[in-house]
Amino acid sequence: MNRQRLLTLALLLTLFAGLLYLGLRETPRPVDTEPVVRAPLSETIEEEGVSHMAARHTLTAPFAAVVERHALDPGRSVERGAPLLTLQPLAAPPLDPVARSEAEGRQQVAAMRLAAAREEQAAAAAAADEARREQQRLEALAERDHVSRQALEQARLHSRLLEARRRAADFSLRAAEYERATAEAVLQRATGERPDGAPHTLHAPADGVILRHAGHSERLVERGHELLELADPLSLEVRVDVLTRDAVRLEPGQAVIIEGWGGDEALNGRVARIEPAAFTRVSALGVDEQRTWVVVQPEPPEAAWQRLGDGFRVDARFILWHDEAVLQIPTSALFRHGDGWAVFVVEAERARLRPVERGRRGRHATAIVAGLEAGERVIIHPDRALQDGSRITPR
């Protein structure tokens, strides 16, 4: 009988000890984990930008007149020399000394602008031709592995940029020719060479697309009133304002990814230039920021870019550095530890504190220089209650 009582007591003590162990045992904390992997990684700068057609010209009324009704709509393509608007001049003294003097001055200014535009167009054409020849020379050397791939890409980019400048210079030359012709027509009217009531037709100074106009209806306008704006869609670029401390890390030729513009695919571009003058902008938090404009040039295929218009909002991602095989973890796994950085590594259902040395930081991941190996799992978004040795259970 005593033996049976001892056995029962032993069983009760064992059961009590088990319940006590279960009660005092630490409850595993649910955590999210990610593996340490080797994968491509890029260090980037991300900012918002706006598309912009650089080659543009605004047609204005050369004198007070009545603009006849028209059927032009924004988005319509026009060819150089195509009639756009017809003006019925208002009656004015043909030999008014003041009007004649002003007309002569505008004609002289227009002539000087035309001469300057011709010089700029000739220089842009010569530079573009030279860049194209240099690109062809490097392509021939690249076929025999006598030049680096980077040098060839730089030559191609330089050639595309100078070709874009030539197109812009051609557009500016056509606009200057139009301004001189308009100034001469105004001078002829002021001197009486052109009948006062003769209609005056405004023609397209260059091939382009109509961006906007002042309206379809017939209306009275004063001299200098803006009537219509024309632009070259091939001059499309993206202007991005970035912080000056980020702008100094950029240089012409760097790759840019254009996203958030509405299409499914990303568009490729290159930094064309970084403007040297900065401006102040107040951030959403009310902080004054020094920023500057960075101009991005489209990369082929340019057809995809033509779905963008003038003034469209985009997201620009500048590629500062890229590597195809980098040991990395999600940035959310890192936290400050002493003077350095650390992570929690999953080991036998426990969280183990591991100091690490981090490298470059990408969009969502960070390179690890030392402290981890591929295949290990780290805890992302660790909370403050998590300690070294805490029991965990992956979600």
**What's the domain count?**
3
The order of strands across the largest sheet is: 2-11-14-13-12-15
Number of helical segments?
4
CATH topology of the largest domain: OB fold (Dihydrolipoamide Acetyltransferase, E2P)
Residue share in helix: 25-40%
Q: How much of the residues is beta strand, in percent? A: 35-45%
Biggest sheet details: 6 strands, antiparallel, barrel
The CATH class name of the largest domain reads Mainly Beta
Helix and strand content put the structural class at: alpha+beta
Would you tell me the overall average pLDDT?
Answer: 84
Task: Give the CA-based shape.
Answer: elongated
Q: Pick out the low-confidence regions.
A: none
Rounded radius of gyration (Å): 35 Å
* Through-space gap between termini: 52 Å
* CATH-assigned homologous superfamily of the largest domain: RNA polymerase II/Efflux pump adaptor protein, barrel-sandwich hybrid domain
Based on DSSP secondary structure assignment, what is the total number of beta strands? 21
* Order of H and E elements: HEEEEEEHHEEEEEHEEEEEEEEEE
